[in-house]
Write a structure and sequence with these properties.
Elements (H helix, E strand, L loop, with lengths): L7 E3 L2 H10 L2 E8 L2 E11 L4 E5 L3 H8 L2 E9 L3 E13 L3 H8 L13 E16 L7
Antiparallel strand pairs: 1-7, 2-3, 2-5, 3-4, 4-7, 5-6, 6-7
Length: about 140
């Protein structure tokens, strides 16, 4: 749906991927049995999928129950801001060739914990917005 203002722009899929590739932190939303969870995660986007690392626990367990997820990534400066939402399916990377490829990616956890499981999110849909930041208009 187009916006009525010139200060908000819908991003193309290519622009969404460019912003995703520039980010390394996202929020992962998932739902199991009617309960919604959201987690901060480190990501690596390659233009086809989004990869993150995790340890055995809540995220991995919930993804085995319901693999439909949403990822949100955003950023801002003094003059602009952007937001990208990816909806897709998540699966644990298990084939050795994919694990080797994931190990070679620049993906690193921020906290010193063992996160040796990789999860790949394959997009079903993606949307993004770019915002020019300015003051609130007159009422």
């Amino acid at each position: 749906m187009p916006y009525a203002t010139d200060s908000v722009k819908e991003l193309s899929p290519e622009e969404c991927w460019n912003y995703l590739k520039s980010a390394n932190v996202a929020r992962l939303a998932l739902s199991v049995h009617g309960e919604v969870d959201i987690f901060p995660i480190n990501i690596y986007a390659d233009g086809k999928s989004v990869l993150f690392r995790t340890a055995p626990g809540t995220k991995l367990l919930e993804l085995t129950v319901n693999n439909k997820v949403a990822l949100e990534v955003d950023g801002h400066s003094e003059t602009d801001a952007w937001s990208v939402v990816v909806k897709g399916t998540a699966r644990e990377v298990q084939h050795q060739s994919e694990v080797d490829e994931a190990d070679a990616s620049p993906l690193q956890p921020w906290v010193p914990t063992l996160k040796y499981r990789y999860v790949k999110v394959e997009p079903v849909s993606m949307s993004g917005r770019y915002f020019e930041r300015s003051g609130e208009p007159e009422r």
